[in-house]
């Protein structure tokens, strides 16, 4: 029969047991089938046997599924127990490490306190000495800009340097080392030439620099020094474009009379050049201009041009009528740089400031 084909040995053994047929455990599927078919009234009970076999088969399948589910749950439970055990172990190890760290910190702290007490006892046993508190080390290059010979005044720069050094309480023995960093290469070479005995003497370095400056300019008398100071004060007030005009001889000018003469000559040439540029006729100034016929002139709006020409003529006449005067005393005989009032006032003030410094 067809329903025997898919039956397993276990199903047939169960079927034989329910039908009261005795079969051995070592019996084969064919032997079990023959034993079941040999029961009385088999043909009449075949439908019942078939239903019973299907029921036993379904029961076996359900039992296998349940067993498989239980096995999976068991494995899942084992995995969960393993995970919990690992977490507990990790937690235990972490707690042991933390306890060890706390113990080490405590031991280190105790050792530090013990060392501190030992030092305090040693200090108490020694005679009391005043220990100054260490102050933060400051560099002058962080407090001041580098000196620029073209823009700055070395005497004023040194005064500012000394004030800053005293403010941050830098030892005077190290002033020279701080100053070298702030000076240009050419100026620092003068300090480098000094002997080792006086290389850290700031007063000597400042005096030597002043003497080298005078020596380079060939200043030998007090009168020449006074003229040089006045000349330097005038030079500082001269515009940069004028300095560029005298760039080749600017450093060699050390007399206020010579400097005033050079500036007067420059101003005269500049004034003549301006007058010449304004006094040229219209054809020379505007070579592309051409006369127009009366008809063309009427057709063009010439009022603005006439007004502009009239204004230009007026400005030229006013410029030519201007008289050169001294801005200090109002005299027509000299200009401000040659004014005796200004020279006497500045020379006395600068000389006093130099010797006070």
UniProtKB/TrEMBL annotation:
<dbReference type="GO" id="GO:0003676">
    <property type="term" value="F:nucleic acid binding"/>
</dbReference>
<dbReference type="GO" id="GO:0008270">
    <property type="term" value="F:zinc ion binding"/>
</dbReference>
<keyword id="KW-0479">Metal-binding</keyword>
<dbReference type="InterPro" id="IPR001878">
    <property type="entry name" value="Znf_CCHC"/>
</dbReference>
<feature type="coiled-coil region">
    <location>
        <begin position="53"/>
        <end position="106"/>
    </location>
</feature>
<keyword id="KW-0863">Zinc-finger</keyword>
<keyword id="KW-0862">Zinc</keyword>
<protein>
    <recommendedName>
        <fullName>CCHC-type domain-containing protein</fullName>
    </recommendedName>
</protein>
<feature type="domain" description="CCHC-type">
    <location>
        <begin position="325"/>
        <end position="339"/>
    </location>
</feature>
<keyword id="KW-0175">Coiled coil</keyword>
């Amino acid at each position: 029969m067809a329903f025997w084909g898919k039956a397993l040995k276990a199903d047939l053994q169960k079927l034989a047991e329910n039908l009261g047929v005795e079969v051995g455990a070592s019996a084969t599927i064919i032997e079990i089938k023959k034993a079941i078919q040999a029961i009385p009234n088999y043909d009449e009970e075949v439908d019942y046997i078939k239903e019973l076999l299907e029921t036993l088969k379904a029961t076996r399948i359900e039992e296998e599924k349940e067993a498989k589910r239980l096995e999976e749950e068991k494995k899942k439970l084992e995995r969960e127990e393993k995970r919990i055990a690992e977490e507990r172990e990790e937690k235990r190890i972490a707690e042991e490490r933390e306890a060890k760290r706390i113990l080490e910190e405590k031991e280190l702290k105790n050792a530090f306190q013990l060392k501190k007490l030992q030092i305090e006892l040693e200090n108490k046993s020694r005679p009391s000495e005043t220990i100054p508190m260490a102050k933060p080390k400051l560099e002058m290059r962080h407090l001041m800009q580098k000196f620029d010979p073209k823009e700055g005044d070395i005497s004023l720069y040194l005064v500012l340097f000394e004030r800053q050094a005293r403010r941050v309480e830098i030892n005077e023995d190290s002033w020279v080392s701080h100053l070298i960093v702030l000076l240009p290469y050419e100026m620092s070479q003068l300090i480098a030439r000094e002997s080792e005995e006086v290389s850290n003497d700031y007063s000597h370095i400042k005096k030597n620099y002043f003497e080298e400056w005078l020596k380079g300019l060939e200043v030998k008398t007090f009168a020449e020094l006074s003229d040089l100071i006045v000349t330097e004060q005038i030079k500082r007030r001269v515009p940069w474009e004028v300095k560029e005009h005298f760039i080749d001889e600017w450093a060699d000018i050390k007399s206020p009379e010579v400097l005033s003469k050079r500036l007067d000559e420059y101003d005269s040439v500049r004034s003549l050049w301006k007058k010449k540029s304004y006094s040229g006729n219209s054809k020379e100034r505007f070579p592309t201009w051409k006369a127009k016929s009366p008809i063309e002139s009427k057709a063009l709006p010439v009022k603005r041009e006439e007004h502009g020409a009239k204004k230009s003529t007026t400005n030229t006449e006013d410029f030519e009528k201007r008289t050169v005067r001294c801005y200090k005393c109002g005299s027509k005989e000299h200009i401000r740089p040659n004014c005796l009032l200004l020279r006497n006032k500045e020379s006395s003030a600068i000389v006093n400031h130099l010797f006070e410094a």
